[in-house]
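Give me the fold.
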Amino acid sequence: MSGKIMRVATTLLALIIYCGCTKTTDLSPGEPGKISPADTSTVPENKVDRNALLTLVNGMRSRGCNCGTDKMAPVGPVTWNGLLERAAYDHSKDMALNNYFSHTGLNGSTPGSRLDAAGYKWNYYGENIATGNLDEQAVILGWLNSPSHCHSMMDAKFTEMGIGRYNNAWTMELGRRSVTR
C-alpha cells in the first residue's frame, strides 16, 4: 500500500464518531428582500486552511458525488462566512476543553442558538462534527464518506460555510442567511 493511501486509511480510522444536524425556518428561499454581504472576517486562533476547505467542498459540489447510494447532482458553490467560522470554532473549543462530542452543548446550546449568538441571521443551517487527528483533506473525506454529512455538504440550499478546529475537535457550520426587509 502506498504511503498516501496508508495515510488516508489511517486518518479515516482516526475518525471516531460523526453526527449531522440540519434545521430550517419557515421562510421560503424566494421571499423578497435583500441579503446583507457575507461576513468575511476570520477567527485568528482557528488554525485551518480556509482556502483548502473551500476548494475541497466546492470541488465536490461542482462535480456532484455519491452520498452513500444517492447520486447527488452538482450544486452551486458556498462562500466562507466569518460568523459561521466563529460559531464552529467556539463549539469545537467547547467540546475539546470539556471532553464531550455532541451537537448539544453542555450549556444546552444547539447549532441554531450558537449561530444566533455569533450574530448569524439564518433561515437554514446544518452542522457536521468530527474528532480525530485530522487535516483538512481527511476531515472533508470523512464527512464525504458518511451519507448524512455528505448530504449536508451537497445541499443546494446552503450558500455559506465556516469550519472551526480546536485540538482534535472539528465543527462545520453550513448556512443560508435570512433576507432583511
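The helical segments are 3-14, 50-63, 82-98, 111-118, 136-144, 147-153.
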